Amino acid sequence: xxxxxxxxxxFKTLVLLTGITPFKSICQEADNLVxxxxxxxxxxxxxxxxxxxxxxxxKNVAHWYSAVDPTIPPHFVTPYLKPxxxxxxxxxxxxxIFVGLILGLGGGVGGASIGVExxxxxxxxxxxxxxxxxxxxxxxxxxxxxxxxxxxFGVLFSQDKIVATTQxxxxxxxxxxxxxxxxxxxxxxxxEIEQVFQPEEEGLKFLTLGIFCPNPVSMSFNNxxxxxIDRVSVVETELDITPLMPVAVIPEFKPTxxxxxxxxxxxxxxxxxxxxxxxxLQLENPEIHIQLTGYADATGAENSNLDxxxxxxxxxxxxxxxxxxxxxxxxVKWGGEINAQPAxxxxxxxxxxxxxxxxxxxxxxxxxxxxxxxxxxxxYRFSAELEKLKNAPFNEIAFTCIGEYEHAVAKSGxxxxxxxxxxxxxxxxxxxxxxxxSYLVKRAEQEKIILINEAHNRPKHRAFVALLLDSLYQRGxxxxxxxxxxPADTLINSRGYPILSSGLYxxxxxxxxxxxxxxxxxxxxxxxxxNAQEIEAARETWAAKDESFAQLADFAQExxxxxxxxxxxxxxxxxxxxxxxxxxxxxxxxxxxxxxxxWHPMAYQLKKYHQIDPxxxxxxxxxxxxxxxxxxxxxxxxKSLIILQAGNxxxxxxxxxxxxxDAFVACFDLQVVHPKTQAGKHGRPTWxxxxxxxxxxSTSKFIPSNTPLPCLVLAYKDAxxxxxxxxxxxxxxxxxxxxxxxxxxxxxxxxxxxVTGQIFTKKIITE
Length: 767
Fold this sequence. Notes:
Elements: E1 12-17, H1 54-60, E2 64-66, E3 97-102, E4 113-122, E5 127-135, E6 153-158, E7 178-179, E8 191-197, E9 204-211, E10 226-237, E11 244-248, E12 258-259, H2 271-284, E13 289-296, H3 302-322, E14 330-337, E15 351-357, H4 376-379, H5 383-388, H6 395-401, H7 405-412, H8 422-430, E16 432-435, H9 436-444, E17 449-454, H10 460-474, E18 477-482, H11 492-495, H12 509-521, E19 524-527, H13 532-545, H14 547-550, H15 554-576, E20 581-587, H16 602-610, E21 615-623, E22 641-644, E23 670-674, E24 695-697, E25 711-717, E26 729-733, E27 741-743, E28 746-754, E29 759-766
Parallel strand pairs: 13-14, 17-20, 17-21, 18-19, 18-20, 21-23
Antiparallel strand pairs: 1-3, 2-4, 3-10, 4-9, 5-8, 5-10, 6-7, 6-9, 8-11, 12-15, 13-15, 16-22, 24-27, 25-26, 25-28, 28-29
């Protein structure tokens, strides 16, 4: 597995999700000839609606289909990007679902249209109002926002189903009867576009929507970008056949107070208003800060009302943060009792006021944001639930979070190794195996900074890094940089443990234990990944200075800008703290030391722009005994190995191919291959025992035998906040599977969640 860099993107059809509950669109009226006009009906009931590619769109979305020939090779597009790669949270036009038509510059194959069979054929004796809503997605770059809809963006009615072919480069080679090209667009606004149409022939029963090209051979991709579509309707009308101007459908936002019932802190009644606030802050004004001020009425005790006003303010704060608003943009205050309203309007005193603020230089040091109880039940879910969500992004990561490591690897795919170049075969044949930990610890004495990569779905890689912590600390390493850690969690070093909002991949228990062990050892941990605003700024600056960079595909620009920010943050950290040495754990491809296609990885940029030459360690994804593996002669070894070249005793690194990942060319200083993952007597992978302090704990000691199965068992350190901490270990007990917990010595609170919905806790002590 790697971070997935794509040299080109093509138009794909996606269903994009911002919520779970579909909204019944106003277009879904009896006179609308378009079935499923808001894309919220599905051929199979789904608890979670993933983001679909062309094939899955046709397979799952009721009535609609991708108007692209299925023989056109599929490509990965934005559903598989990490959320922090410049993609701001998605937004919807009042409902949960909409369709995205996406084009990446370059390539040569499109796929820019979707289609549907109307409820009845159009009549040449009638006129029809054709209407839809269009928006520019938040991932669009400010300097590249299209000002208008592109040429031949429109609707085509036909007697038969139309599907673009490979020969047509995936774009329908016809001119649409309804042409919306040139329609002005407004960034982060849905607009409503409509035209009146009267057919010239009978029997038009198929509607195809998207971007067309009468001459695909000469078409240029350079002016196309990304567009969202929602609420498609075709209704009979008596209006004249004249184009109508687009109308913006989202009004300016004005913050209104959030009101509460007597003695309550629940905000369920006001979620719609708060969702509007979220959209306003995320999409229209990403720099605006807000202040929340909680109040209570004067009907109770003064101290109780002060606490109640605090809880109300925090409840609103938590909702906003949970829905994607950066906590550093929110200032929280509470005022206790207030008598601003007369007694007969006391309900208006039970409220949280929302005020818009200019962004401060920094938050006051004495006003840290309150803690954020995250929804652990949405992170740690039963494996049966996850199986139903197999098309969901990051599904394999969710399996790692409950200790189902084999499922995680299977979900991401595990290709057979490619043939190894002859020179590498010879080097391996004569190579000398050496213990990876011993070699790295000794080599670390010569280095200032070590970069190690990980596959995010293989916690074994994190367990290997944990093995190095003590020895590297003794050799002067004081800083652990983690791509998985959100830089916004500035309290992690003082808190002493990660919480669910510390990062996505850090929600996995082995990652959580790695962070705890580093902090206990004395390391300062820090996140260095880039957020959307930082990527945008880096991309703008780079494009302004380098014309060749400006010509790259948008995704290539985003990847390079992200790695530029990562390298800059690490270099700045090293500049401020010159005494200690640095250990960095990065996503798979970011530690490559040379350019791969159009990608300039973080390690390459660290070396080129900051004159910092890291020692890079690649953890090979496959195991020693994988079929056809060149490491087969070493497969009986139970330790992680490196291979030393027979002649000069230098570490071996594939010069022509990384056999379990992409084609590289001497990208790393060292490659580590791990032993086969085997189940120990406790039902858990043996690599969980690499750190000798872990002890196997039977759940039968504290879980009654009549407990309904399956059940999730989550073990939390006793001193940590169980509402938001990352657990030290998680297992799922099933009728045929009773794995043991693997815990370091100490006191734990164990939370047990049954499939029936029951939740209870137990305290345990490990020796």
